[in-house]
Specification:
- This protein has 23 helices and 28 strands.
- The chain is of the alpha/beta class and 679 residues long.
- Residues 250-257 have low confidence and may be disordered.
């Protein structure tokens, strides 16, 4: 099967199978949408052929009467007839097909049989298939609208591509992007994805010179590693902004905290982010991010500085407040910059950053230029109302060298007609124009995120080799012995076969100790009363052993010093393969779900950045005199754990919970290693 999707997205000719003249029919809507296509076009209706009107009885007849090659077949027939129509199209020379009909896998056993029949024809003939269950696609620069949504034909040509799981979302995002002043290079709804998937389209777009940025909408992921590879390939040459559906997905509850926390939604977002995509929370943020990233980008930078120039104080404060909440740095401007601004602005305006100009005047362009020139500023955000008698914002931005010479985002407020004119001029100059402070903040976050991802790129050669997990079920003592072999610190402990050995261990270790049931089959020991802490005396030990029960093995372990508890786990995700998860640990892990996730194996540098994604990261930086996390140490531990899982095909999961941060560093207080089920 060919990997070239040119016959699908840039065909010489198109044939509509099931074309109709009856209004309301899919075949009629598709024929109408394709009427503007400047290439060859043919219609097929086996029941009502009319050769004089260009409607033929078969694809072969249509091909014989068409000068150009009919590369693409658009199937507007019921599910039951799609496989035969696809076979006919392939036999007549079509190299790609679009199937819009529903009634396949989503319709039960009969529909699944129709889907299997389509797969067989595609596999046997090599014809590429988009759909079924999609409203189609559009390529405005070709005048090609293979969609039954008539308004799609009015979308402007441009540089942003949309790849959406849903045909409806494909159209919705394209319309929103157009409303924001953007054009579309290609918009594709994947639908059921029986053949062509999002990964296929992304690979096609990687080499598409018309596309400068890609919107990716994800619902389910049939092949995680392939999607990640495709996103990584595109993100290396142009920005990808991803929106993942499924926030409320709690997944199949796994046997550990790691499995419970690493839901499909979280893991998919983390995987795409690691591949280089800018991941957003909703469609508004996606549009704002692409409006910016399709026009300007920052140089790779782990901590870019944002300069804000506002002609109205209130909106500027909104932007600054949101930037702070997003973790975007707004540095104080250099004294030399402030001196320049002081000569350009009224004396009562704020000039340290944000720069408040008061009502803008003839010096506005020079204010923009001076702020952009400050050595601590890497990106400029500008807010002004459209006031033709006071300042021409678009001209001022261009005169200051914004866009071409310095990355910036600009908001122009005012009446729609005034704003539309300014926005069009700004966009023509390569300067992203947004609709308000929140939209500008979305764009800033996307630009900063993209810059940080570029700065975090690490060569594959820095990945460490993994140590293989020993075979067989491992109890906590054996699991911790393996961790110690990896260089991960664990408490002093003694595995005991009976009460006498437990009392000997207490004498050797001294109190206080933790006393635990030692059984590889018990993963959540606290839930069955299998953990007793702070045991100091023989009497307290007897009480703990009585509570755990006789005929048990016990683990007697020195109590660790106080600190902050984390969870660190590596598991095999059913879609993406090995992943590593870090978050707030202990019994609060699942309740707070404050986690960072990466695909494994990963470099120490990538792993070291994970704690900074946590909402609770302040707890790791000496909160109220507490311990400070050594990011490099954490990176070594997390990368080592991830590498061990990647090197151990028979292991399903390795988890440390809690991994305690103490004044002396990290120490693993509990460990679980789970084998993969035998098939």
């Amino acid at each position: 099967m060919t990997t070239d999707l040119t016959p699908l997205f840039a065909p010489e000719g198109v044939v509509v199978i099931g074309a109709s003249r009856q209004a309301g029919k899919l075949g009629a809507a598709m024929a109408r949408s394709l009427a503007a296509f400047p290439g060859a076009r043919a219609l097929v209706n086996a029941r009502r052929p009319d050769p004089d009107a260009g409607v033929y009885a078969s694809v072969a007849e249509a091909a014989a009467h068409t000068a150009a090659r009919l590369d693409l077949a658009v199937l507007c027939v019921p599910a039951s007839g799609c496989a035969d129509a696809l076979a006919e199209a392939a036999a007549s020379g079509c190299r790609a097909a679009l199937v819009c009909a529903g009634g396949f896998g989503e319709a039960g056993p009969e529909g699944e049989r129709y889907a299997d029949a389509l797969r067989r024809v595609a596999a046997e003939t090599g014809i590429r298939l988009l759909g079924p269950n999609t409203s189609g696609y559009f390529a405005p620069h070709l005048g090609l609208t293979a969609s039954f949504v008539p308004a799609a034909g009015q979308l402007p040509a441009g540089e942003i591509a949309v790849v959406a799981a849903s045909g409806g979302v494909n159209h919705a995002l394209a319309f929103d992007l157009a409303d924001a002043g953007n054009g579309i290079s290609l918009g594709v709804g994947i639908g059921a994805g029986l053949d062509v998937t999002s990964a296929d389209v992304l690979e096609h777009l990687a080499g598409d010179g018309r596309t400068t940025a890609v919107a990716l909408h994800v619902e389910t992921v049939p092949d995680g590693p392939r999607l990640v590879a495709a996103v990584r390939r595109v993100a290396a040459v142009k920005p990808v902004v991803a929106l993942v559906v499924g926030r409320s997905d709690v997944g199949d509850f796994a046997r550990s905290h790691t499995g419970a926390l690493a839901t499909g939604w979280r893991t998919t977002r983390a995987a795409l982010r690691q591949a280089g995509a800018v991941v957003v929370d909703d469609e508004r943020e996606l549009v704002d991010a692409l409006t910016a990233l399709s026009r300007v980008r920052l140089r790779p930078n782990q901590d870019p500085g944002l300069g804000i120039v506002t002609a109205q104080a209130g909106p500027g404060l909104l932007l600054a407040d949101r930037a702070g909440a997003d973790g975007v740095r707004t540095p104080i401007l250099a004294e030399s910059t402030q001196e320049i601004l002081g000569g350009l602005l009224p004396p009562l305006t704020y000039q340290r950053n944000p720069v408040d100009t008061g009502r803008p005047g003839e010096t506005f362009a020079r204010v923009l230029g001076a702020t952009a020139a400050d050595p601590a500023v890497d990106l400029l955000a500008v807010y002004a109302l459209a006031e033709p008698d006071s300042v021409d914002v678009a001209s001022a931005a261009q005169d200051a060298g914004l866009g071409a010479d310095f990355p910036a985002v600009v908001v122009v407020g005012g009446l729609h007609e005034d704003v539309a004119e300014q926005r069009a001029r700004l966009h023509k100059a390569g300067i992203p124009a947004l609709t308000g402070p929140s939209s500008a903040a979305n764009a800033v976050r996307a630009l900063v995120t993209h810059a940080r991802q570029g700065a975090l790129s690490v060569p594959e050669g820095e990945l460490r080799a993994g140590h293989r997990v020993p075979g067989g079920p491992l109890d906590e003592d054996a699991a911790k012995t393996f961790l110690a072999d990896l260089g991960i610190r664990t408490p002093d402990r003694v595995a005991c076969r009976d009460r006498a050995e437990a009392h000997h261990a207490l004498r050797v270790l001294g109190g206080p100790v933790a006393v635990k049931v030692l059984d590889a089959g018990i993963l959540h020991k606290t839930e069955i009363g299998g953990v007793h802490l702070g045991v100091r005396t023989p009497a307290e030990l007897d009480a703990a052993l009585d509570a755990i029960g006789s005929d048990r093995r016990y683990l007697v372990e020195s109590m660790a010093p106080s600190g902050v508890d984390l969870v660190l786990g590596a598991r095999r995700d059913p879609v993406f393969g090995p992943v590593v998860l870090a978050g707030l640990g202990g019994t609060a892990a699942e309740a707070l779900a404050d986690v960072a996730i990466r695909l494994a194996p990963l470099s120490e540098a990538e792993a070291a950045a994970m704690p900074d994604e946590l909402a609770a990261r302040a707890l790791l930086d000496g909160w109220r005199g507490g311990p400070v996390l050594d990011r490099a140490e954490f990176g070594r531990v997390a990368a080592t754990l991830a590498a061990a899982l990647a090197a151990s095909p028979d292991t399903a999961e390795i988890e440390i919970n809690p991994l305690r941060l103490t004044a002396d560093g990290l120490i693993a207080l509990d460990a679980v290693i789970v084998d993969r089920p035998h098939r």
